[in-house]
Amino acid sequence: MRERRRLHVWGTVQGVGFRPFVYREAVALGLAGWVGNDGTGVVLEVEGFPDRLDALHRALLEASPPLALVEAVRTETVDPHGAVGFVIADSRAEGGTDVAVSADVAPCAACLREFADPADRRHRYPFINCTDCGPRYTIVQDVPYDRATTTMASFPMCAACQHEYDDPNSRRFHAQPNACPACGPRLRWLGDDEERSGADALDSAVACLVTGGIVAVKGVGGYHLACDAGNSSAVDRLRGRKRRDDKPFAVMVSDVESADALCLVDDAVAAALSSPRRPVVLAPKRVDAPVAPAVAPRLVELGVMLPSSPLHVLLLADCARPLVMTSGNVSDEPVAHDDDDALRRLAPLADGVLLHDRPIAVRADDSVVRATSTGRVQVVRRARGFVPQPVRLPVASPLPVLAVGAHLKSTIALARGGSAVVSHHLGDLDQWPAYAAFLQAVEHLTRIAHVAPAVVAHDLHPEYRSTAWARESGLPLLGVQHHHAHVASCLAEHRRASQVLGIAFDGLGFGCDGGLWGGEFLVADLVGFERVGQLAEVALPGGDSATREPWRMAVSWLHAAVGPRAAAEWGAGVDERSSSVLQLVAAGRQPRTSSAGRLFDAVAALLGVRASVSYEGQAAIELEALGRQAVDGAPAPVAEIRGGVLDPAPVVAALLADHRRGVPVTQLAAAFHVALADGTARLAQQLAGARELDTVVLTGGVFQNALLTDLVADRLRTAGLDVLLHAHVPPNDGGISLGQAAIAAARLDEGFH
Ligand code: ZN
Ligand code: ZN
Ligand code: FE
Description:
- By secondary structure, the chain is an alpha/beta fold.
- Helix content is 35%, strand content 22%.
- Strands 8-7-15-9-10-14-11-13-12-16-17 form an eleven-stranded mixed sheet, with helices on both faces. It has a seven-stranded mixed sheet with strand order 27-28-24-23-22-29-30, sandwiched between helices.
- A hairpin with a 4-residue loop joins strand 23 (516-524) and strand 24 (529-535).
- Helix 20 (649-660) packs antiparallel against helix 21.
- The chain is globular and about 90 Å long.
- It starts with a strand and ends with a helix.
- The chain binds zinc ion (ZN) (2 copies) and fe (iii) ion.
- One zinc ion binds next to helix 3.
């Protein structure tokens, strides 16, 4: 007895070869009917014997293409009508949606084989792709995902490409970005006074790079500035042109072996490098790594990545050396992705521009992950290759929620039903281009999801641009405390809704009391929280300038730890403004903060590591780098615990004394990490014990510090506690939007029952 069923498939099922996969399975099972994309995912109607229909259903769940992520399949029975044959139907644009387009994918092995084959028509074609690889998120302008709704719409396929696209047995069956040298995008080179195209363009770019030039290269999600990583004068020049920036540059290498020449590559690093997401992987730098010192000044780690597109494969092969590949921008601005914008902004920084005519629909920086010595991999910046892969929420949202995130390292998130999509890293909203990217992300994300937000979740900080946007949106608002959002982002990542002890250590976040929090111990679930512990508070002298100039925080901490005279004595040797800063601190009218990030700044300044910084977190990153060199067996001073307050003042005092005695800075940096980890774990045990909680969450930007994270987690696990760490979402403010979305979903859900 034949049956006909209609199946709705939800998840990451567009742009991943899902329809061709269904076609092949259905044909192999002798089923009739059709499959198509619609606004909510993939829909199919299949007709045949029930056991065959069941087999197809199982295949959808168990044998889907490598890039697909099936979240749910809903089946309804409809009347059979004697259909014969199976077809891929035209896309239908109807229906509200939480469709998930795939993230961008690095070239697959099959494409790379064709690419390397001189007899293949795509030999060395920089835009080769197939159903398993190629650009996705960065070329999608709308759903359903079809060529017409991507930036490939302006490239009509030649007969040969069209044939592949229409042939269910081809690797390029319905591969939307399918292209070849005859019909697809082309390279262009804009040099000083020459303009070239195709293979000549690539040759010019390579010639420029190998002779020490700086080249702006259009990649998948935006432009990079590239130069020879081993050429000191080229790297120095690039650093000079990018202005006031000590931020480390990422280095692109052709393969894992080449990465191993620069960094210690263990299994975790190798796996992260080779992932089709192609993130920048932070790994321990080899002392004799053949890269210029200015690539990553004063750091023991280096960011390395493998080529993320066929164009990068060519560049690396032809240059035959590691290349610096840093975001094409000036200082904190977002990476350029629009050609006119790029030429205007990057031409003055580069000796030439290598670009192509496939437009980028939405920018996406390189993602950054960190592989720690314990084999743990943590996402530090989530963008190309990860976005827009959805995160399943612990509690489904009854209404569509737009979460607008924080302010620095901004992201937004869109939650609907059981999942949330977190945008790519947008940058610091103080900068106009980052705010423009924020506005574009809101528009793009709601468009490709076909969702009109019903509620906006936002941070409590009244001066965040994201908060201001929320207020002006006219939509119902749901305010979420910053550190609660940090804890919730980690809970969401682990699909946990139950109560935990959350430790949120970060720079600064707006507290419920209007204070500047940043070293918090919260008993929290997804709905609410209670602040049960904190780091001791000290004065924050001079607001933003205290963040840029860590010596100010050192003065404040020394005032608290060893008193005004010793603080004055130390400050006099560091900055002539220290006496006025000390007066501010002593007067007691400055805002106070429990920030762990600012404590790191203070200690870094105290130990002479860094008196001022050129990017947020720089002092802490350098302090960690030093601490790692001496962490084994460093004797650590002991922080004091009074009630729920962890006071590191005795640690600060001991570090000052030891520093004066000439104890090496590496040892003191290590001792500080151990002391803070000891105190944090002791207080956490007390608080968790008192509330009978068995799980501790470590979150906030300070826990990007792998040394501190591993020290704290070890101690908690030894004490029998479960520890939840971030893996796929950054612990920093890039995760805030997800936390806001998860909290909003849980609160709305509670209101509904
Ligand atoms: Zn491929
Ligand atoms: Zn073609
Ligand atoms: Fe934060």
